[in-house]
Amino acid sequence: MIRVLLADDDPLVRVGLRMMLGGVDDITVVGEASDGSELPALVDLHTPDLILMDIRMPTMDGIEATRILRARTDPPEIIMLTTFTTDGYVLRALQAGASGFLLKHTLPEDIVTAVRRAAAGEPVLSPDVLRQLIDTVAAVPTGGTAAQHTPAAPQAPAPGGQDAQGAQALIGRLGVREREVAFAIAEGKTNAQIAADLYMSIPTVKAHVSHVLTKLELSNRVQIALLVYRTGLV
To answer: Where are the domains of the chain?
Structure first.
């Protein structure tokens, strides 16, 4: 059972999400928050696997709440669910450690699929958001930064703000198989697809992903993908 916590200042949004997820056999909504400042206590109380979180909330926004929660030991996965698609919001959310970024008009069945994927440690981005993000990161010339106007996550290198040379230096920390896994993640492949393509078992792929995250000091697969894109090698 995937334990989900909802965080949105609009009670109607929370009711809609609770009703939608309530009809799914393997997902249960364990709590709700109307502001990011409420989340640390609710996470302690309910130990959710995943948080569906709005970016804009009145006292503490979703990005700051994500930074605080992802700095914890064994933190929940976080999907940003919002109406805002500007590259600044996307980069800041992902740099803070969010596992995904979905638009609020995403179809209910796609939100359910996203919850399952994010709970399994896979990145989740709406196609429109992914295209915008890749275009933003790829368009930055060598030596520039895609996140000049966005603060980097304090606990990790800023994948979207790394120049190509710096990104390549970080990727150089990886072994051959770890590098292959990192580039496969940047292509959006799941663990099962990576295992099939690279002739590995799924547990071996998971181990390589863990090593990549540790060596690059990143917190999730989306940040790996951002860093690989900044190398200019894909």
So the answer is: 2-131, 144-230
CA distances from residue 135 to 74, 84, 87, 130, 210 in whole angstroms, order as listed: 32, 17, 10, 8, 27
Q: Which amino acid is at 192?
A: A
Tokens 């997820």, residue located = 21
**Bridging pattern class, strands 50-53 and 77-82:** parallel
Query: Hey, what CATH class is 2-131 in?
Result: alpha beta
Reported as a single tens digit per residue, the pLDDT across 182-203 is: 998 887 787 888 999 999 998 9
Question: How far is CA 49 from each of CA 24, 27, 46, 116, 127, rounded to the nearest angstrom?
Answer: 16, 10, 9, 10, 24
Q: What is the pLDDT of residues 124-166, one digit of tens each?
A: 776 666 666 666 555 554 444 444 433 333 333 444 445 778 8
Q: What is the pLDDT of residues 20-52, one digit of tens each?
A: 998 899 999 999 999 999 999 999 999 999 999
Q: Do domains 2-131 and 144-230 have the same CATH topology?
A: yes
**DSSP reduced 3-state for 27:** strand
* Whole-number Å distance between alpha carbons of 140 and 119: 31
- Output the pTM of the full model: 0.67
Strands 50-53 and 2-7: parallel
Q: Residue 204: CA atoms inside 13 Å, Cβ hemisphere, count?
A: 13
The CATH superfamily of 144-230 is Response regulator (3.40.50.2300)
Task: Give φ, ψ of 213 to 5 degrees.
Answer: -60, -40
